[in-house]
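User: Here's a chain of 352 residues. Predict its fold as tokens.
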Amino acid sequence: MGKVLMKGNHALAEAAIRAGCRFFSGYPITPQSEIVEYMSWRLPEIGGTFVQTESELAGISMLYGAASCGFRAMTSSSGPGFSLLQEGISYLCSGEVPAVIADVMRYGNGLGDIKPAQSDYLQITKNGGHGDYRCISLAPSTIQESVDLMRKAYELAEKHRNPVIIATDGALGQIVESVELPEPITHDPDQFDWSIKDKREEKQKIVTSKIYYDYIGKDYDDHIRERYEAMKQEEMWEDYYTEDAEIILVSYGIVSRCCKEAVLQARENGLKLGLIRPITLWPFPVRAFQKVSPKAFVAVEKCALPQMAEDVVVAARNIAPVYSMATGSFIPSGEEIINFVQRVMKGKESEL
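Assistant: Prediction complete.
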């Protein structure tokens, strides 16, 4: 159909539908409310089911039910709403139920602010809920990439039988860009041998925590470790001018676009700057760091305290020191990033 202009949230929702999503349950909250609004008319139009729930808790619970039946299902939220999803995400992981969850991040703690940010990194990548689990987390940097990663998200969710998080932010949700939408695919919810069907089968299906029904003691420990070790092989990232870089920026999402601008500006002035852009926030792309040898890494992220920088420190161990540029509620300019890098080179910033 060629390229069309779309707002980021609308494009994300349409991409989910074209990836076979036929169930959405969720609750509006800025800056992701347009996903809910779009799904409210688009899903019924194609025979899908949309439910605006009374809360995020209800939304994630209904998602569990639909996904247990083999349907490609989705919910989305932001900030305090995403916090309310955490118990349900833990249950999805325990039940080994595939689903997609979009977090259109906003700024601040508690109620926070509606400004776009990357404040949920630790919650997304380190478990916001209880127990031993992880969620593959995909971080697009453009609206086109949001569209492209949606189908990948469902494929990974079903491959590993685990929820996948689309980690985007309010800026990408609200801006308008040209996108090329993929052709729709048909998804068969009855294809999985584990899913609950609409008719009684010879063997009763129970979708719940594997601890109680399939494993005892150490066997379950081994099962968990094997599952998440397999997910670690899904690392994705982009290298940008890293081959000869003296300083390498590390950034994702909307801020990585500012970093690309900084890289090009710096190289025009003789400063060899590069960028590693994680596409998977978890598993964090450790292999990207093993291919380079800069003098330092600078983690650039849109939050008040270093979050992703903690993973950069681990990935960069024995390679180079790491510095953090946490920009708070502001999107940095290329010039501001270069100024910070120059301070690092002059020894005026503290190493993490």
